[in-house]
Amino acid sequence: MAESMEGSTLFDPILIQIIHVGENTGNIGDVLKRIS
After folding, report:
1. Domain that holds residue 24
2. Rg for the chain (alpha carbons), in Å?
3. How many domains does the chain have?
4. What crossing angle do the helices spanning 28-35 and 12-25 adopt, rounded to 10°?
5. What pTM did the predictor assign?
6. Rounded distance, CA 25 to CA 29, Å?
7. Buried/exposed code over 1-36 (b: 16+ C-beta within 10 A; e: otherwise)
8. pLDDT tens for the chain, residues 1 to 36
9. Please, are residues 22 and 28 in contact by the beta-carbon 8 Å criterion?
């Protein structure tokens, strides 16, 4: 995961938000559907 984040600094803040929300909701798949 770290390697992917290093390749896209622009997506770092987005990935961080997805991770935080995913931890709170426990369903990252649902989060991905919302942002897509």
Report:
1. 2-35
2. 10
3. 1
4. 130
5. 0.35
6. 10
7. eeeeeeeeeeeeeeeeebeebbeeeeeeeebeeeee
8. 555 555 566 677 888 887 777 677 666 677 678 776
9. yes
